[in-house]
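Data availability (excerpt). All sequences and predicted token strings are deposited with the supplementary files. A representative entry, Gliding motility-associated ABC transporter permease subunit GldF, is shown inline so that the format can be inspected without opening the archive.
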Amino acid sequence: MVSVFKKECNAFFASPIAYLVIGVFLLINGLFLWVLKDNFNILNAGFADLNSFFYVSPWLFLFLIPAITMKSFADEYNTGTIELLKTTPITNWQIVIGKFLAALFLVVIAILPTLTYVYTIYKLANPVGSIDIGVIVGSYIGLIFLAAAYTSIGLFASTLSKNQIVAFIVSVFCTFFMFYGFDAIAALLGSNTYWIKLMGINEHFKSISRGVLDTRDIIYFLSVSASFLFITKNKIDHE
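Structure token line:
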């Protein structure tokens, strides 16, 4: 598993993918939060919090994480190296987990520079330091859980086609549905549909973002990630 993790990380950073994903994520967030005069601009909000950042990021991840994961297995199938990989003395589970951790590691690297936003609003607050640290910490934890779920979905999508573009499109569709699809269905059906919202990622992400680490939300994210990783492993087994 460690060897797969290192191989994937080396592949990411040896190509423009890693730098492009990190750069685009930070650039778009920076524009929305600090430059553009819109509802997401922190400087125009009148209060020091990062709600805008935690609202925008899940939508950016809908495209950036599929861009990271689209080649994970699609490229292996296209070049025929999947058979060589499966003959190495590691299990299919180790292959899947290694690729999953490598992709998630890249996402975490992209998130780390945004900690400067926390310091900035800490200084901008009046009085200085009057920010809700609990909510911010909870939101960052929720963002990592959300990234893990997206990554597992992206890995599964990359096993469905040898074409990376097809894998990207399928991944975007699946992550969008898991994030917002159940909310849309609940809105169409009307009242008494909160249980439908609970099937989607968005409701659980918003719950954690309030600063309360509910075990139900944690179990949900772990279940989604584990389920898609399990499906991915089974798909490889039957190739």
